[in-house]
Design brief:
two-stranded antiparallel sheet; 32% helix; seven-stranded antiparallel sheet; 446 residues; 9 strands
Length: 446
């Protein structure tokens, strides 16, 4: 309000300062700094713009009698909800650290189950009527919901704001997003925070992952922090990680009745860790672009500058976002895998079946799991609504830079580790499967 009513010279100065501060925060290190995006900013309006996510779509179908949620005696409304949201039961992962809203119910013998697809995450605690849902809005990022039966036993889904206390912080790249943490826990599931905790994604070493989680699968010669309760609470880092390695049956830890399965699949965990971080980066990119473009428009109007001219601060923000997102999407800092990793559920097969595939049968959803996570190292989330919803100027810059990387025109050190055969394969797959690519993507190289 003050900015609008201030004299023009003061408005220009104030806006220039805003641009400088916000640009500096973006440049600190995109998605890695302590900066938290102001959600009330007019360019973001997180609480004002109606959500457009999978849960909103489900509620509309229920209202139109095109969907119905039903309850069973074993898992309540869980199975029905997963089915209506298109979330596979094989994605089940189990976490026993007390690190969620229902921490009082969570123990090593009653872990919290998580399920996910490309844009929805569902949490379930055995014995609780409440289900937790996070759905990715293409423009606004994570939207949080709880689902509880009313007095008549009908499931009611409502949006929650309290989740943002943890899920809009530096741990989530400063936007409404998701966190996957690894930490040591005691025999009751309480985090031993004196030993620290790690945010986990595909850059994290296998050895640092899954503290507080159950993990089913084989992964020799790696060890990890999963399946373990700290033997020495004063020095939990001295725990023998080999004791939790290569576990394929969790029955010695807890009774799995009341869960869809007894799996906490290692491949599902690895996919979740990759995906959550990228969702956060895509949301941050969207916010950065909208904020920069709005301030640029206002400043151009006040200074009567050319509306087509992009400010240097906007260029810096776009370049920072492009570099960070493409490095992550192309797995250039991925922790290496030594030896084959195998899950215990059908998750890997279910995930890969979703395609899309080119004429040679190749897909960005094909796993490798021998030396790296995916056979063709570019994230499948390039097909997501969240990627496509990034404002045009920034998305177009990302696509052009990606094209330069894949065609070998980008000679920068950041992408030098990508092998020529991988660049060519990814380029061919995208040309065949990614809709609305710019025309130059399909032109023959000179």
């Amino acid at each position: 309000m003050f900015l609008r009513s201030a004299p023009a010279p003061i408005r220009c100065l104030l806006l220039a300062l805003i641009l400088l501060v916000s640009s500096s925060s973006a440049l600190a290190q995109f998605g890695e700094s302590s900066y938290v995006v102001p959600l009330e900013d007019d360019a973001i309006a997180y609480d004002k713009i109606p959500p457009s996510d999978a849960v909103t779509a489900l509620l509309a179908r229920i209202k139109q009698n095109n969907a119905k949620l039903t309850r069973d005696d074993d898992t309540g409304y869980l199975r029905s909800l997963l089915k209506e949201l298109g979330v596979p039961e094989s994605s089940q992962m189990l976490v026993f650290s007390k690190t969620s809203a229902q921490l009082r119910r969570i123990t090593p013998t009653n872990p919290r189950a998580l399920y996910f697809n490309d844009d929805v995450y569902v949490g379930y605690v055995r014995g609780s009527e409440m289900l937790e849902i996070s759905a990715v809005d293409p423009k606004q990022g994570a939207m949080f919901y709880t689902a509880m039966p009313d007095e008549q036993g009908i499931l009611q889904i409502q949006r929650e704001g309290q989740c943002l206390q943890c899920h809009a912080s530096p741990r989530t790249a400063g936007v409404p997003g998701h966190i996957v943490r690894s930490l040591y826990v005691d025999a009751n599931g309480f985090p031993l925070l004196q030993a620290g905790s790690n945010n986990i994604d595909h850059r994290s070493t296998i050895e640092s992952r899954w503290g507080g989680w159950y993990v089913t699968g084989t992964h020799k010669p790696h060890v990890h922090m999963g399946n373990l309760l700290a033997e020495d609470e004063k020095y939990p880092e001295k725990s023998d990680l080999s004791q939790g390695a290569n576990i394929t049956d969790l029955s010695k830890f807890f009774d799995a009745r009341g869960y869809p399965s007894g799996h906490s699949d290692i491949v599902a965990l690895m996919t979740l860790e990759h995906q959550t971080r990228l969702h956060n980066l895509l949301t941050l990119s969207n916010y950065e672009a909208r904020t920069a473009l709005r301030y640029q428009q206002v400043l151009n109007e006040m200074t009567k500058d050319s509306p087509g001219r992009m400010l240097d601060s906007t260029k810096r923000r776009f370049n920072s976002a492009t570099q960070a997102v493409l490095k992550y999407m192309l797995f250039v800092e991925e922790a290496p895998i030594k030896g084959e990793i195998k899950g215990t559920s059908t998750f890997a097969q279910d995930f890969a079946k979703q395609g899309p595939r080119d004429k040679q049968g190749r897909s960005l959803r094909d796993f490798d799991l021998k030396t790296r996570m995916f056979r063709y190292p570019l994230s499948y989330l390039i097909y997501s609504d969240a990627f496509d919803a990034i404002p045009d100027p920034l998305r177009e810059q990302m696509l052009h830079r990606l094209w330069e990387v894949l065609t070998g025109q980008d000679k920068s050190e950041a992408f030098a580790s990508i092998k020529a055969e991988d660049r060519q394969a990814i380029l061919e797959i995208l040309r065949a499967t990614k809709k609305n690519l710019p025309a130059y993507w399909h032109a023959k190289m000179p």
